[in-house]
Structures are given as C-alpha cells and as structure tokens.
Amino acid sequence: MSDQTTTNSCLNCSRSEEVVPLLSLRYTGSSAWICSQCLPLLIHEPHKLVGKLAGAETLEPASDDHD
C-alpha cells in the first residue's frame, strides 16, 4: 500500500484544494478541478481556458439572455 497522496488543483490558477475550495467537473470523458473564483471563466469566457481544459475551444459562453 502506498502513502502517496494526490493534491488536486484548479485547472486555471493552479491553486490547490489546501488553499481554495475546488469543484470537480467532467468534460469529454476527462476529469478536472476548478476553483470557485475561476468558475466564472468556464461559464462566461471558456476561450480563456484553451490549453488548460481539453475541448475548451468548442465551448460557447453562457448567454446573458434570461428570457
């Protein structure tokens, strides 16, 4: 049995779960973590996550239309 532990970190800012709360997400069959402060990027500006989240280039930003 291994004593190795994994510390998860935000895919955008790289802060660990020891520093900020992290949310787990799954996309295109992969798992990732994002902190609550970077979550608005995923929702409103996903293009800023290209290279950090596989498939981010295909995500559309949430619309501001609440009708």
Brief overview:
By secondary structure, the protein is mainly β.
What does the model show?
Helices cover 9% and strands 18% of the residues. It is mainly beta and 67 residues long. It has a two-stranded antiparallel sheet.
Task: Report the count of strand segments.
Answer: 2
Describe the largest sheet: 2 strands, antiparallel
Distance between the termini: 55 Å
Unreliable runs: none
The overall pLDDT, averaged over residues, is 90
Structural class per helix/strand content? mainly beta
Number of DSSP helices? Answer: 1
Strand order of the largest sheet: 1-2
Radius of gyration, whole Å: 14 Å
Sketch the topology as an H/E string, one letter per element. Answer: EEH
Q: Beta-strand level of the residues, as a percent range?
A: 15-25%
Shape descriptor: globular
Share of helix among residues? under 10%
Which labels suit this protein?
67 residues; mainly beta; two-stranded antiparallel sheet; 1 helix; 18% strand; globular
Topology:
Layout: E1 22-27, E2 30-35, H1 39-44
Antiparallel strand pairs: 1-2
